[in-house]
Structure formats: C-alpha cells, structure tokens
Amino acid sequence: xxxxxxxxxxxxxxxxxxxxxxxxxxxxxxxxxxxxxxxxxxxxxxxxxxxxxxxxxxxxxxxxxxxxxxxxxxxxxxxxxxxxxxxxxxxxxxxxxxxxxxxxxxxxxxxxxxxxxxxxxxxxxxxxxxxxxxxxxxxxxxxxxxxxxxxxxxxxxxxxxxxxxxxxxxxxxxxxxxxxxxxxxxxxxxxxxxxxxxxxxxxxxxxxxxxxxxxxxxxxxxxxxxxxxxxxxxxxxxxxxxxxxxxxxxxxxxxxxxxxxxxxxxxxxxxxxxxxxxxxxxxxxxxxxxxxxxxxxxxxxxxxxxxxxxxxxxxxxxxxxxxxxxxxxxxxxxxxxxxxxxxxxxxxxxxxxxxxxxxxxxxx
Length: 364
Prior knowledge:
- This protein has helices spanning 11-45, 47-52, 54-70, 80-92, 131-136, 138-143, 153-162, 167-180, 186-192, 230-233, 238-243, 252-259, 264-267, 269-281, 288-298, 339-345, 353-362, and strands at residues 99-102, 105-108, 113-114, 149-150, 194-195, 203-204, 304-306, 309-311.
- It is mainly alpha-helical.
- It folds into three domains: 3-151; 163-250, no CATH class; 263-362, no CATH class.
- The longest helix has 35 residues, at 11-45.
- It is rod-shaped, with a radius of gyration of 35 Å.
C-alpha cells in the first residue's frame, strides 16, 4: 500500500489503517527491544571486563546508538499522522518502559539521565546516556524530553550517598557546587559528600571548618583535623571557599592554639624553630590582642631551643650574650628570623646594670 493511499479520514478505513500502523509500531518495538536484550546479555556477562576494556564498551555503545537511530521517527509526508501513530505505538505498546543503554548497562529510560559536562568529573554511579549515543541520537533525545531527564540535585545526593569521592572528584564537585547550588542546599552536600582518605573511614565535608591559606600557614606543617586538605583547596579560590562553602581561612591564632599542644614542640628543635618562624612571619600583621594570646600560649612551654636543650622562654637568652659560658642561649639556624617573637615570649636581654646583677645571681 502506498503511503499516499493510506486513508485516515473515512471512519471504517481509518480504524483499519490505524490498527495496521499500530502493528508496525509494535513490530518496531519488538525488534528494538530484542536488540537491547542482546546488548544487555553481552554487557552483563562481561561486566568486569567491560569496566576495564573501553574498546568493548565503545563497541556496545555504537551498536546501541545504531539501533536507537533507526527507530527514531522523522515527520512523515504527506500525512504526518502515519509517523505519529507508529511512533506512539512504539512507546506505549508495552507496559515496561523503553530500554536504553546507559553508563551502567541497559535500563528503563526513566532511570537514565542526560549527562552534564560540569558533573562528569564526579558522577559515576548515577546512570547517564553515554556520549556516543547522545551525539549520534541527538534527534531522539530532543523529542524524548518527557522520557529522559537532566541530572538533578537529587541525583548528585544519590551519587554521594553511594560512595566516597577521591580528591580529584571532590575538586570537581566543589567547582560545580559553587556555580550551581543554592545556599539552602549547601549543608545537604556537606553532610553526604565524603572524601576517600588513606584510612578506612572516609570523612564528610561537614567535618571541615577551615581552608588553608599558605600565605599565613604553610602546608608542610602540622594542621588541625578540621582543615580541608590543601591538595583540594589549592584548586579553588579562597573567596569561593569562604563565600560558597562557609570555610574561612585558618587563622594564625587558631593554628597557634593547635600547634602549642604538639609534643614535638617540646623535644624537636627543628620543629620548634619552624613554628617560631611562622609566628614571626605573621608578627607585623598580628593585632596587639592576638600577640598577647600567642605570648600566653607559649611562654609556659619549654619551646625554645638552646645549647642546653629545650627551655622556657624566660629561662633563655639571646645568642649575643656571652658573659657566662653556661647561659642557655637560643640556638636557631637563622636567629634574626625569630627576633620579634623571641622578645614577645620573654627571651632575656642584658641592657642595664640591674639585669646584669640578676644574671650574676642566677649563675652563683
């Protein structure tokens, strides 16, 4: 029967011809689903191999794209109803949804999402349309907007609940996050997003409170547990970390409160020198009140390297005092690099007669 002769006007013939066209749609669906079933069998039988063999995965994606392309209907002419009837029957003839190959195997189309390039770096468990199929079947997906949806915030939460992310994936998540997430959604992401660390236990992002500003504290010194790894934060702007994610930079005072309790400060001269150099580096930018806090934190600690071991600040002297050979003078590789902080902590100088007399009595 020629398509120009298909009568869809006369009631009797229209009903008859519509049924014939519906059968055509049914046959198309059977042929398509049979091809998807074959692809599914190959995928399921070789899943582990496919996971490591991108060539095999690519062959299956091309095969699925070929099938979907040939069952994507264009407008029929001269009567558009011909194509519409067949296409409608293709989708509605079975109770089950149309099958499609996703990044996680053959699934019902409603369980698959259109990929988002900004999410590609961290979306692995959520099933999306492979790029090959998306590119070759563009006409189908433009028509099937009611069947297959874009990735949503809920899909991101599902991904985060499924698994912890490595550092590179966390970086990609944060980059997407700063441009896409409403402020009300931030705490949800912090709760569910976990960093896969070297330990067995992954850490949720809501356990972090600060990011590291290397201009204040260098990344090669001990840091509080609540500081976001520098390998992550260095890939993002400090203003974004604070504004979008609520993480301020670790302040000198907060770091000082942490580091003053490090046992290495009392036994390791090299470690102690590094700590004092960091305090000195920030000395001019530190307020008077914060300097007093630093002084109170450190002046009761045996944290000053001397030639007679670690001493309290007020028991030590600057290295240029050589009146007595047994004075515990400070021992730093670069003494001038800690001058101000040593004075703040109470390291002693000889400037007047009274202090000179006190030195004599100290050494009697």
